[in-house]
Amino acid sequence: MSPQALDAAAAEVATKLPGGGGPGDRVPDDPGGDGRGGGDQPQAMLYRLGLALALASIAALFISLVVVYVVRSRTATYWQPVHPPPALWISTGMLLASSLTFEWARRALAKGEWLVYWRRVLLTAWLGASFLGAQLLALWGLYGRGYHMKGNPHASEFYLFAGLHGAHLIGGLVVLMWLLARRSENRPRTRLAAELSAIYWHFMGLVWLGLFMVLMVVGR
């Protein structure tokens, strides 16, 4: 047999053996794609479960406070209706607007529009900080009008609801600062963090809207 025939036979055997060097050896890289791949999916599910548990605990806290507030309002002793200052209406509008801008930011991120996303997250953070400032202004106005925590359960509920909600919202603002610091990183984890942060922010907006309605309706 000629040398050329031997070479051809050896090449044919090599292609048929496992690991013979043919195109079948190549396995495409799978870094996780859009963050929903097999490697990142368990971790993403764990983050979503943690957020769900956190939101459930926050909801239970505020529901318990609302129940106590409603029961206490049935007793007229020392109960003086509080007329909410205009700053509370302004702050509520700011928080609802921030929820809208955060959703726009998340959609821009999904499209890969990083600069638009960063600007909208920055606007969301500014609206959130303005909400807290308006809340402080409203509570200071109540205090100046003689509505103190001692001696008036209705006024004390105003301070308690606003204070607890503001503390939770400050946590959301810290996360927003973290998202702004990672504005140049095009990674699945960044998109997952933005998604979970948006859910938390929308939830806190709904919580305040419910608290505000309770304070407006029940305490009258």
N-C termini distance: 106 Å
Number of helices: 6
CATH H-level homologous superfamily name of the domain at 85-217: Cytochrome c oxidase, subunit III, four-helix bundle
Rg, Cα atoms, Å: 28 Å
Mean pLDDT: 78
Per the principal axes of the C-alpha atoms, what is the gross shape? elongated
Query: Helix/strand/pairing class, anyone?
Result: mainly alpha
Reading the helices and strands in chain order gives HHHHHH
CATH fold node name of the domain at 85-217: Four Helix Bundle (Hemerythrin (Met), subunit A)
Number of strands: 0
Major sheet characteristics: none
Assign the CATH class of the domain at 85-217. Mainly Alpha
The low-confidence runs, each spanning 5 or more residues with pLDDT under 50, are: 2-11, 13-39
Helix content: over 70%
What's the architecture of the domain at 85-217 in CATH terms?
Up-down Bundle
**Percent of residues in beta strands?**
under 5%
Describe the protein's topology:
Elements: H1 3-16, H2 41-73, H3 86-110, H4 114-144, H5 153-181, H6 188-217
Helix pairs in contact: 2-5, 2-6, 3-4, 3-6, 4-5, 5-6
Which descriptors apply to this entry?
disordered N terminus, 6 helices, mainly alpha, 220 residues, Four Helix Bundle (Hemerythrin (Met), subunit A), 74% helix
